[in-house]
C-alpha cells in the first residue's frame, strides 16, 4: 500500500536542483547513509552435495575467480539498484507517545467508563479522543513533523521538505521506468541487531549455470525485502518508505515530479533572503510554499505562508 503523503527531506541546494530540474533523483545504493547497505557483504554459499567437489576445487585452484564472483554480487547490489527515500506519517499514537502521556490520557475523566480490557483498542482509535487531544496527534504523526529529520537531512532546519502525493508519484515512476526497469516499493522494517546480522545464502549452482551477474540479480530480486527494506532498529523513528528501481546501468535515474507535489515546506532557519528563487520555481509547478516553525517543541507547519497558487 502506498501512503497518501510521503515526505522527502533535503538540503536547500539539492532542493532547488529538484525544483529546477522538475525531477527527483533515484540514487545508487552505494551512496546511502547506512554502512550496512554499502559495505562489502560476505555471503554464505549454499552448495548442493553433488557440487561440493567443484567448489572445493575452485577454492583451491582459482580463488581469484571465487572472490570476483562475490564482488560481482556487491557491484550488482550497490550499483544496479537505485532508490529514493521518504518519510511516511506515523499511524499509531502509541508508537510515539511516552508512557507518561499514555497514562495521562488513560486517567482522563473523558475515559473513566472504559474498562482495562477495552482500553488498548479504544486508545488506538483517534475518533474516540476529545478534540483537544486530537490536536496533539496532529502535531506529531505527520511525516513532516520529525525534528531529527529536519536536523539531519534538511541541513539543521535550513533545508526543505517536499510533501508528495504517494499515489501520483507511484504512477509517475511506473510510467517513466516501468518499461525499462523492475520497480519495487514498501515500508522499511526495523529489526534488532541479531535479526539483522547475516545474509541469505548465495546459490552456488546458479553461479555455475548462469554466471555471477545473473545469479546476483536473481538473488536480490528474490530477497529484496531483506536487503533493501530491512534496517537496524536504530533507524526506526524515520518511518521510511522506499521506491527501488533495478536496471543494469551504473548511473542514477531521474523521475519527473510535475503533478506529484502537494506542498513544499522550508525549515525554520531557511534564509529568508533566498526565498524568492524557491518561490519562483514553485510557481512554475503551481505548488504552495510554507514554513515549518516550532512552539514549545511542537511542530507548527504554516502551509502556503509564502506562496499559494
Give the helix proportion (percent range).
Answer: 40-55%
Radius of gyration (CA) equals 23 Å
Report the biggest beta sheet as strand number plus sense, adding barrel if it closes: 10 strands, mixed
Query: Average pLDDT, to the nearest integer?
Result: 86
Distance between the termini: 30 Å
H/E element sequence: EHEHEHHEHHHHEHEEHEHHEEEEHEE
Number of helical stretches of at least 4 residues: 13
Bin the strand percentage: 15-25%
Uncertain ranges = none
**Per the principal axes of the C-alpha atoms, what is the gross shape?**
globular
Structural class: alpha+beta
Number of domains: 2
What's the count of strands?
14
Keywords, separated by commas or semicolons:
globular; two-stranded parallel sheet; 309 residues; 2 domains; 13 helices; alpha+beta; 14 strands
Structure description:
The protein has helices at residues 12-21, 35-38, 52-61, 63-80, 99-107, 119-124, 131-140, 147-152, 166-177, 193-196, 204-222, 224-228, 275-285, and strands at residues 5-10, 23-28, 45-46, 81-88, 160-165, 182-187, 189-191, 202-203, 230-232, 240-246, 253-256, 261-266, 289-295, 298-307. The chain is α+β, with helices and mostly antiparallel strands. The chain has two domains: 5-89 and 142-307, no CATH class; 91-141, no CATH class. The strands form three sheets. Strands 1, 2, 4, 5, 6, 10, 11, 12, 13 and 14 form a ten-stranded mixed β-sheet that branches. A hairpin with a 2-residue loop joins β13 and β14. The mean pLDDT is 86.
Amino acid at each position: 500500500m502506498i501512503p497518501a503523503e510521503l515526505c522527502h527531506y533535503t538540503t536547500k541546494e539539492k532542493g532547488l536542483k529538484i525544483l529546477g530540474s522538475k525531477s527527483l533523483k533515484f540514487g545508487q545504493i552505494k551512496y546511502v547513509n547506512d554502512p550496512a547497505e554499502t559495505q562489502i557483504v560476505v555471503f554464505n554459499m549454499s552448495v548442493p552435495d553433488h557440487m561440493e567437489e567443484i567448489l572445493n576445487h575452485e577454492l583451491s585452484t582459482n580463488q581469484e575467480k571465487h572472490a570476483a564472483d562475490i564482488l560481482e554480487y556487491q557491484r550488482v547490489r550497490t550499483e544496479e539498484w537505485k532508490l529514493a527515500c521518504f518519510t511516511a506519517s506515523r499511524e499509531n499514537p502509541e508508537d510515539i507517545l511516552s508512557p507518561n502521556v499514555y497514562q495521562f490520557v488513560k486517567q482522563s475523566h473523558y475515559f473513566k467508563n472504559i474498562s482495562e480490557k477495552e482500553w488498548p483498542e479504544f486508545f488506538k482509535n483517534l475518533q474516540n479522543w476529545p478534540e483537544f487531544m486530537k490536536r496533539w496527534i496532529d502535531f506529531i504523526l505527520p511525516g513532516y513533523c520529525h525534528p531529527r529529520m529536519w536536523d539531519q537531512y534538511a541541513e539543521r532546519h535550513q533545508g526543505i521538505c517536499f510533501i508528495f502525493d504517494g499515489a501520483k508519484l507511484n504512477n509517475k515512476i511506473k510510467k517513466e521506468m516501468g518499461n525499462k526497469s523492475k520497480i519495487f516499493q514498501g515500508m522499511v522494517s526495523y529489526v534488532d541487531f541479531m535479526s539483522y546480522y547475516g545474509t541469505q545464502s548465495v546459490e552456488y549452482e546458479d553461479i555455475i549455470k548462469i554466471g555471477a551477474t545473473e545469479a546476483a540479480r536473481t538473488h536480490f530480486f528474490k530477497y529484496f525485502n531483506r536487503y533493501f527494506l530491512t534496517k537496524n532498529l536504530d533507524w526506526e523513528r524515520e518511518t521510511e518508505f522506499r521506491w527501488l528501481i533495478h536496471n543494469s546501468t551504473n548511473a542514477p535515474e531521474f523521475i519527473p515530479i510535475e503533478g506529484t507535489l502537494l506542498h513544499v515546506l522550508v525549515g525554520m532557519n531557511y534564509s529568508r533572503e533566498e526565498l524568492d528563487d524557491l518561490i519562483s520555481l514553485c510557481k512554475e509547478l503551481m505548488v504552495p510554499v510554507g514554513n515549518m516553525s516550532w512552539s514549545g517543541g511542537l511542530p507548527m507547519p504554516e502551509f502556503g505562508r509564502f506562496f499559494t497558487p
